[in-house]
Design goal:
Blueprint: E1 4-7, H1 13-24, E2 28-33, H2 37-49, E3 53-58, H3 64-77, E4 83-86, H4 101-126, E5 135-140, H5 144-147, H6 154-174, E6 179-186, H7 199-206, H8 218-229, E7 240-243
Parallel strand pairs: 1-2, 1-4, 2-3, 4-5, 5-6, 6-7
Helix pairs in contact: 1-2, 1-8, 3-4, 4-6
The structure holds NADP nicotinamide-adenine-dinucleotide phosphate.
Length: 247
């Protein structure tokens, strides 16, 4: 059976690493992006250079019509999805005393609603009752979802707490349909996500305080996601795998 993966937010950071590992594992790869078509095309080219097959697809995961179009376009271009990396997400640094409904709803829409909508589209294609052959979903959570953040960005942490709950619940809901659902919980990972809040300086300050002595890099997470999707992990579902160097 052909393996087809949708990697949301596959144009940069952790998603780009997941996409590249997926290409090496024999998946046809949908590299989804929101704005950075240039970065998505770079990842497609990198996968193709290693002999893989990939294509870039624009869609904002917080928009229901975009998500429906994304999966329909993937059906036509690559075939029905067999694996979903629910990776697209944003961080924001705000204190609760400054929050507005607009700030909160924007973050929930991308980090939570987007993950649910993409899972819905994947299940409609993977579930045996819909004619599928099963599949795998890995959600990108965060250690913040367990610990509540670093004394700030509680809304981001809460969105990842929701993803943890979704992972456990959805794993039970679709296990009988041949679909496994797991989450990875990275700690601090060196990506563009930290640029607006100190970037490299923040990574260099916090990195040495992590028990294993460094911040993570995207490949620490990308490799684990593709392993969780592999047959070697075929008895793992509903798991929350921390990837934080002991954080
Ligand atoms: P990043 O470097 O900021 O990249 C974000 C990616 O998501 C980009 O590809 C971006 O697309 C895409 N994206 C953002 N909003 C989107 C939307 N509405 N629709 C579709 N795509 C969207 O982020 P990252 O650090 O790799 O984080 C990836 C995931 O890991 C997130 O869920 C994050 O919460 C989680 N995580 C990260 C860390 C960390 O320390 N970095 C730690 C724990 C968990 P464009 O390129 O088009 O903008």
């Amino acid at each position: 059976m052909e393996k087809v993966i949708v990697v949301t937010g596959g144009s940069r950071g952790i998603g780009a690493s997941i996409a590249k590992h997926a290409g090496r594992a024999g998946y046809k790869v949908c590299v989804n992006y929101r704005n950075r078509a240039d970065k998505a095309e770079e990842i497609v080219a990198a996968i193709e250079a290693e002999g893989g097959e990939a294509k870039a697809f624009q869609a904002d995961v917080s928009r229901e019509e975009d998500v429906a179009r994304l999966f329909a376009d993937v059906d036509s271009a690559l075939g029905p999805v067999t694996a979903l990396a629910n990776n697209a997400g944003i961080m924001a640094v705000d204190f609760v005393e400054d929050m507005t409904a607009e700030i909160l709803n924007h973050l929930w829409a991308i980090n939570i609603t987007g993950s649910f909508l993409c899972a819905r589209e994947a299940i409609r294609r993977m579930a045996r009752k819909h004619g599928g052959s099963g599949g795998v979903i890995v959600n990108l959570s965060s250690i913040a979802g367990k610990k509540g953040g670093r004394g700030q960005r509680v809304h981001y942490a809460a969105s990842k707490g929701a993803i943890n709950t979704m992972t456990i619940g959805l794993a039970a809901e679709v296990a009988g349909e041949g679909i496994r659902v797991n989450a990875v919980l990275p700690g601090l990972v060196d990506t563009d996500m930290h640029e607006p809040w100190g970037g490299k300086k923040r990574i260099d300050t916090i990195g040495p305080t992590i028990p294993l002595g460094r911040a993570g890099v995207p490949d620490d997470v990308g490799a684990a996601v593709i392993w969780l999707m592999s047959d070697e992990a075929s008895f793992i579902t509903g798991a929350l795998l921390e990837i934080g160097g002991g954080s």
